[in-house]
């Protein structure tokens, strides 16, 4: 990306595209019912960020209770949701920043800083949830934190990595804009 500069049409949109993928992963984590699941048959427990469902007998109906009745459930949902909203704001700002012909590198660095703040909020929600869930709610059988919880962690890791990219990109401003005189390694005979 640095070799061709951000004017190279395919490279210019890589960072906003990765942010968009992070937004999709965040939506999957928020909507997914697989934050916690029973590991073995018969499946008796399934939980999302919003509710916990339990089945008492095989083939029976699921009984669900809202996690929003617990203070830690509201805290985990709120912090993860704030991190997700900040990620969406960063995605919109990145689209604006890279659509402008003249890049504002301080603006890009600000997006990186905001991504770090989003990562902090996301990680707080991802840590509160399993710690308090396992101590406050009775779990039967063997349970595991599952695919939707993994998408939440993937989103948080993407926020951190993209934050580094957005913060470090202005350090290569001259190379990106083509203001550096090329050096040739040529020796005359």
UniProtKB/TrEMBL annotation:
Segments passing through the bilayer: 12-32, 77-100, 107-131, 151-172
Superkingdom in the source lineage: Eukaryota
GO biological process, one term: cell-cell adhesion
UniProt keywords, alphabetically: Apoptosis, Cell adhesion, Cell junction, Cell membrane, Cytoplasm, Membrane, Transmembrane, Transmembrane helix
Key word Membrane present: yes
Main location: other
Topological type in the membrane: Multi-pass membrane protein
Gene Ontology CC entries for this record: cytoplasm; desmosome; plasma membrane
Translocase found in the keyword field: no
Signal peptide start-end: none
Subcellular location: Cell junction, Desmosome; Cell membrane; Cytoplasm
Sequence similarity: Belongs to the TMEM47 family.
Protein name as it appears in the record: p53 apoptosis effector related to PMP-22
């Amino acid at each position: 990306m640095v070799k061709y500069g951000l004017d190279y049409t395919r490279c210019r949109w890589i960072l906003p595209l990765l942010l968009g993928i992070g937004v999709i992963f965040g939506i999957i984590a928020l909507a997914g019912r697989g934050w916690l699941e029973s590991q073995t048959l018969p499946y008796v427990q399934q939980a999302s960020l919003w509710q916990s469902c339990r089945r008492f007998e095989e083939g029976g109906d699921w009984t669900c209770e809202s996690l929003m009745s617990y203070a830690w459930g509201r805290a985990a949902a709120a912090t993860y949701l704030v991190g997700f909203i900040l990620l969406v704001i960063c995605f919109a700002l990145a689209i604006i920043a890279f659509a402008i012909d003249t890049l504002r590198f301080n603006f890009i660095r600000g997006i990186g800083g905001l991504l770090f703040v989003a990562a902090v909020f996301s990680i707080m929600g991802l840590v509160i949830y399993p710690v308090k869930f396992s101590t406050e709610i009775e779990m039967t059988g063997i349970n595991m934190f599952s695919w939707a919880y993994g998408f939440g962690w993937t989103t948080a890791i993407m926020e951190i990595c993209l934050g580094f990219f957005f913060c470090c990109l202005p350090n290569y401003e001259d190379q990106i804009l083509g203001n550096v005189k090329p050096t040739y390694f040529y020796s005359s005979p």
